[in-house]
Design brief:
The protein contains 18 helices and eleven strands. It is mostly helical and 488 residues long. It has a three-stranded antiparallel β-sheet with strand order 3-4-5, with no helix packed on it. The protein has a two-stranded antiparallel sheet with strand order 1-2. A two-stranded antiparallel ribbon has the order 6-7. A hairpin with a 5-residue loop joins β10 and β11. Bound molecules: alpha-D-glucopyranose. The site of alpha-D-glucopyranose has 7 residues, from loops.
Length: 488
């Protein structure tokens, strides 16, 4: 448990400097905002550190880094900026044959020209898929909060949605509802053996399909079209199949693992439903026993024939709560797991990106000996303050939608969240709002970490807003159009 860290009590204690710290974070945040075409469009990934130069592409506007930025701006009612961001992204949606419909990873205005990166400029030529999946989610949340239905039903938005759906809703060799992606296609954008159907992408796909449906339904109300009706039907079905697939193949608890360990292998034909991916019991790692204890559950990192990836990925699991992919009892099983594994996941700087890190031999073979992803560092089990607010939002949204469910557990989660919030507040200003911290305890600022990282700043501000200012605002993140509570 976290109490073994020497500064534990001082770190998680409420601070009288709260207002000053929040004020400073807000000032830094305002400095991250940049303009395109003369109007504010969003934030650069990190502020240039006053004593250093050479920021690589951290001076660009990354779509994924701007997700918390746009949500924060929505909470502040700064709708014009969000709309401009969405419009600029639409303008940059690829039109070339091989990548038609793809949104860029990042963009920047250089001498009056917009330059976008679809992967051709990035280190290792990696292409991001999450940016494209996030766009409809942000667009829908913007329309829902601002009530700018004209934008939602506009030809530009509806065309963008269809182009994007074309990338997903088509026949494939697999015949499954998952989206197959190369390594490095999301926040983890360096080789980490996360190719195929990594959790974060599949959960984002679920949120994306759900948002596309809501946007198409808006258009459908205004103008009934046969084509749209067919697209809606297909998209709903795909979303439904995807959810069933993920809950069947990715969700694990102590009970399900025990079933998995005793399944037959080498099945063929009608019998293979017991072990579709022919997984040998030996691949189930022993660390799962303590990690899951008796009442925890989570979505594993990936499913591939014979080789499931049992690593725990924080963001994919938190998003599965926010998007309502996990049922309410499953969400609480996930919260229990987080509580039980607090020492690993929160440690001194919440929250760890994935667990466990690939160890030295695996690091060599599966990351290509990437020194930035050394065991316990950066994407390979590093601690990212920007991730905490997603967990916070998942807990607070659950409390809003199911106020009477397991009050004891939710009380414990709330205390955990409070302590993590104070822990960030007491450390981040002195650590210059660093991008990530190195494991195993997350005590040291990441060896190659940027400082004044935008999503560290804005993640903290979001948590401050949701925890201390207006918890009810968490419903902003609920993808369902009708409010309040619904049963899942
Ligand atoms: C790194 C991160 C990526 C992030 C980018 C800008 O490449 O891995 O997730 O979007 O920095 O902050």
């Amino acid at each position: 448990m976290a109490h073994q860290f020497s500064q534990e009590l001082r770190r998680v204690r409420p601070s009288s400097r709260e207002d000053a710290v929040v004020g400073l974070a807000q000032e830094h945040f305002e400095r991250t905002l940049v303009a395109v075409g003369g109007a504010t469009v969003g934030s650069v990934a990190a502020l240039v550190h006053p004593r250093r130069c050479g920021t690589a592409n951290y001076g660009e506007v990354f779509l994924r880094d701007n997700v918390p930025v746009m949500l924060y701006l929505l909470l502040q009612g700064r709708f014009t900026i969000v709309r401009h961001f969405l419009e600029v992204c639409l303008e940059l949606q690829s039109n070339t044959y091989q990548t038609r419909g793809v949104f860029p990873t990042s963009f920047v205005e250089e001498q009056g020209n917009l330059v976008a990166d679809y992967g051709q400029r990035s280190i290792g030529r990696i292409s991001s898929v999450d940016a494209s999946l996030w766009w409809p989610v942000l667009c829908w949340l913007y329309v829902k909060r601002s009530r700018d239905e004209n934008f939602g039903t506009s030809q530009a938005v509806q065309r963008g949605v269809q182009l994007l759906l074309d990338l997903v809703l088509h026949p494939s060799f697999e015949g499954t509802p998952v989206l197959f992606v190369p390594d490095c296609a999301f926040m983890i954008d360096r080789p980490m053996d996360v190719w195929g159907a990594p959790l974060e992408i599949e959960v984002l796909l679920y949120g994306c399909l759900s948002s596309c449906c809501h946007l198409m339904e808006l258009a459908q109300h205004q103008n009934v079209s046969r084509l749209l009706e067919q697209r809606l039907k297909l998209t709903h079905q795909w979303q439904h199949d995807l959810r069933s697939y993920l809950l069947k193949h990715y969700w694990v608890t102590s009970k399900t693992v025990q079933v998995l360990r005793r399944r037959p292998t080498e099945q063929y034909g009608e019998h293979q439903h017991e072990n579709e991916f022919n997984v040998q019991p030996q691949v189930i790692p022993p660390w799962l026993q303590d990690w899951l204890e008796n009442s925890g559950g989570y979505l594993i990192g990936n499913m591939r024939t014979g080789r499931p990836d049992f690593r725990f990925f924080s963001l994919g699991n938190c998003l599965a709560c926010l998007f309502g992919l996990l049922t309410a009892p499953q969400q609480r099983a996930l919260f229990r797991l987080v509580l039980h594994n607090r020492e690993h996941l929160m440690a001194q700087m919440p929250m760890r990106i994935c667990h466990p890190p690939l160890d030295q031999e695996e690091w060599r073979s599966r990351t290509g000996s990437d020194p930035k992803n050394w065991p316990g560092s950066y994407h390979n089990g590093g601690h990212w303050p920007s991730l905490l607010w997603y967990l916070g939002a998942a807990i607070l949204l659950h409390q809003q939608l199911h106020p009477e469910a397991d009050v004891l557990l939710m009380g414990q989660m709330r205390s955990l969240l409070d302590e993590c919030y104070w822990s960030q507040l007491n450390q981040l200003p002195a650590q210059q709002w660093a991008e990530y911290f190195d494991g195993p305890t997350g005590t040291w600022v990441g060896q190659q970490s940027r400082t004044f990282q935008t999503w560290t700043l804005v993640g903290f501000l979001l948590l401050n807003h949701l925890l201390r200012r207006n918890p009810a605002d968490v419903t902003l993140l609920d993808l369902e159009p009708g409010l309040p509570a619904r049963s899942r």
